[in-house]
Structures are given as C-alpha cells and as structure tokens.
C-alpha cells in the first residue's frame, strides 16, 4: 500500500479579472494554498483552498507547522481517518475559517489521490449522480456597477448561454436595490433565473423589508441576508419571505449546517468545500440536505464544485466565477448552460505547474523522497 513520504506546499496569489465589490467588502486577491501529496511509489494528489485577500499566510503556517507533518508515513487511502485526526489535532482552533481552509487543502489532495488511484473522475468515485449541472454566473452583478452596466452584463450572460445570474444587493436604500433588479428583470425576461446576494449586510428588520420589496421579481434566492451566526433571524426570515433563503459560504462545519436545516432556516445550502474543511465534510452536508429535501448550490470554486455537484443528486447549480485560469491549462466546460463533469481521473483540474512555480510566493517541503517527474 502506498505511503505518504513528502508533502509540498505553495501559496499562489491570483488577482480577479474584474473589480468585485459587495455590500461589506471587496475581493482583493485570491490567496491560494496548494498541497501536493507524494507517495513512495511516485503517485500523487493535489488539493487547494483559498482566501479572498487575507489569512493565506496563516493557512500556510498551519499546514506547514502542524497538519502536513502528521501525514508523513501514513496511507492516503484512509481519508476519513486522516481528516478526523487532523480535526482533533487542531481542536483548539476548530471550528473556524483558518483551520477549515487548511484542512480542505489537504483533504482535497487526498481525494484527488484516491480518485487517481482508482482510475476514476472524482464525481464518479463519489457517486456519479449526473454528468452535468446548470450554471449561473457571478462574474457580473457587482454592487459598484451602474444600473446600465448591470443590465448590459446580465443580458450578455443570458445571450452567452448561462441559465442564471447572481446580482449583489445592499445599496443604502432598499428602493435602489429594487430599481436595479427591476431593470435587469425587465431586460432579461421571466425565464432567466436571477439570484441576489446581500453578503450578511442586513439586520432582521431590514432583511424582512427588502425581501418583501423584491418578492415580485421571481428571484431564485436571497443569499446571506443576515450575519451567518444569526440562526434565529434566518429562521424567522425563511418563515416569512416568499424568496427562498440561501446560506452556507460562511458556515464551517456539518453541525452548523445541521442547525440551519433542523430549524428550517434556509431553503438552499451553499456549502463551500474549502470553508467547510474539504470534500469529506462537504459530502456529509450534501447528503444531510438531501435527506431533508433541500438542494445544494455551492459557493465559488467552480473547478472543484462541478465534480462534487455531479456526485450528488440534490445539486441544483454550479456558480461560474473563474479564478484558476492563470494556473491551469483547461477551463470548465459548459454546454447549453450546463457545467460538464470532468473525464480525467482525480479532481479533473489541469494544473499548469510552470505557472504555479512562477507565481508561488511561499514554498514549503515536508518529508523526503525523489522528485516527482511532473511539476516543480
């Protein structure tokens, strides 16, 4: 059985192609921790996670100082056991964003290894529920855009074949949000799906007002209307709003999702594979939601989430927001508005290792062993 003998860590920073601003923050840069696990037989697995501008150095330190050394001499087959050992090793800092992001970088590498070892694309290894998933875009719709640009970009997205688009809300006055969304709805027509995202900007009273004001626009969901720790507020809003409530990108454990689902505090689960701690807990959340007849539409990381969405039956959407183009050699395949499942064994991400080497701000190496034939 292969044994892990070396782990290589890289941090690559990727600037967004367009200005991204929402109600509370701007997306400055994607700090991308990359993990390469190398076994004594030369086999490897590659995983990653991300931040939107801060915390990358902390994730890298946690990986280098604490988590990666635990894996040397272990079998990559035992993914569940390794994930739980790492979770309890970092018990004093879990549940939390930095720990989850570090766990995810390793866990996705382990699953990449496991799928490659089995000779299967990840989505087939994990269940193979479907080979394609509907796609909406978040590459437009940012809050700083004037309404004319918002309308033009959304119409272009529809004409490019996307089946929906997500737009940011959170202007100082609710009437501004209504005017912007009304103009877009009139331009794209009733068949094109529109989602809105408040990025946790509202109080419960303001969320109730804005959800009521937007209710006649036929929106697919209102995303993160309240701070993620306001579980009671989300339950109250979900009970009163005609717009489905979506949450998940700011939840960091299956237990937190369980609380939301038990209270009926959301109608769409947006579990993020990096922020929840990897593929291992992502699957638990997706299957829990399935058991409660709730759909999954994960946040960000389209290059990885397409495989996870194709693995489970209750996935509804993949979010199109490209961020790995600079360090990969292939893009997400979309046909008739549907993201296509990868066909190659593993995660299905074609890394450009020359670009990774060029862009890497931080490098660490744990363990020993001969160099890998492919890579840096």
Description of the structure:
By secondary structure, the chain is an alpha/beta fold. It has 2 domains: 4-119 and 350-367, Enolase-like, N-terminal domain (Enolase-like, domain 1); 123-340, Alpha-Beta Barrel (TIM Barrel). Helices cover 38% and strands 18% of the residues. It has 12 helices and 14 strands. It has helices at residues 56-71, 79-89, 97-118, 122-125, 147-159, 174-188, 204-214, 231-240, 254-262, 279-291, 302-311, 353-359, and strands at residues 4-14, 30-39, 44-48, 132-137, 164-168, 193-197, 221-223, 245-247, 268-269, 295-296, 318-320, 334-335, 338-340, 360-367. The longest helix is centred in the first third of the chain and has 22 residues, at 97-118. It is globular, with a radius of gyration of 20 Å. Residues 370-376 have low confidence and may be disordered.
- The proportion of residues forming helix, as a percent range, comes to 25-40%
CATH superfamily of the largest domain: Enolase-like C-terminal domain
- Give the H and E element order: EEEHHHHEHEHEHEHEHEHEHEEEHE
Tally of separate helices: 12
Please tell me the overall pLDDT: 94
The structural class is: alpha/beta
Distance between the termini: 25 Å
Extract low-pLDDT stretches. 370-376
Q: What is the CATH architecture term of the largest domain? A: Alpha-Beta Barrel
Strand content: 15-25%
Shape: globular
């Amino acid at each position: 059985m292969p044994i892990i003998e070396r782990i290589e860590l890289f941090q690559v920073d990727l600037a967004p192609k367009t200005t991204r601003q929402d109600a509370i923050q701007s997306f400055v840069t994607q700090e991308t921790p990359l993990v390469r696990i190398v076994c004594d037989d030369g086999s490897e697995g590659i995983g990653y996670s991300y931040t939107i501008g801060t915390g990358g150095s902390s994730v890298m330190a946690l990986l280098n100082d604490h988590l990666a050394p635990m894996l040397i001499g272990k079998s990559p087959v035992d993914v569940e056991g390794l994930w739980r050992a790492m979770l309890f090793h970092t018990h004093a800092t879990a549940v939390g964003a930095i720990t989850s992001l570090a766990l995810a970088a390793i866990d996705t590498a382990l699953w990449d290894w496991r799928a490659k070892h089995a000779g299967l694309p990840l989505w087939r290894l994990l269940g193979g529920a479907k080979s394609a998933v509907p796609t909406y875009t978040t590459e437009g719709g940012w809050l700083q855009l004037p309404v004319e640009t918002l309308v033009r970009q959304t119409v272009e997205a529809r004409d490019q074949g996307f089946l929906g688009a997500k737009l940011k809300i959170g202007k100082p006055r609710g009437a501004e949000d209504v005017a912007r969304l009304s103009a877009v709805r009139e331009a794209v027509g009733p068949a094109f799906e529109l989602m809105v995202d408040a990025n946790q900007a509202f109080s419960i009273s303001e969320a109730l007002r804005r959800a009521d004001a937007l209710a006649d626009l036929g929106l697919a969901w209102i995303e993160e209307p309240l701070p993620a720790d306001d579980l009671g507020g989300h339950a109250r809003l979900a009970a009163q709003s005609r717009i489905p409530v979506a949450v998940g990108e700011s939840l960091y454990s299956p237990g937190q999702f369980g609380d939301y689902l038990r209270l009926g505090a959301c109608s769409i689960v947006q579990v993020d594979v990096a922020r929840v701690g990897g593929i291992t807990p992502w699957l638990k959340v997706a299957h829990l939601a399935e058991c409660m007849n709730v759909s999954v539409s994960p946040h960000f990381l389209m290059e990885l989430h397409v495989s996870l969405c194709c693995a489970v039956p209750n996935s509804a959407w993949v979010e199109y927001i490209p961020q790995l183009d600079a360090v990969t050699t292939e893009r997400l395949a979309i046909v008739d508005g549907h993201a296509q499942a990868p066909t190659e064994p593993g995660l299905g991400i074609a890394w450009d290792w020359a670009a990774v080497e060029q862009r890497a701000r931080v490098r660490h190496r744990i363990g020993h062993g001969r160099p890998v034939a492919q890579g840096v």
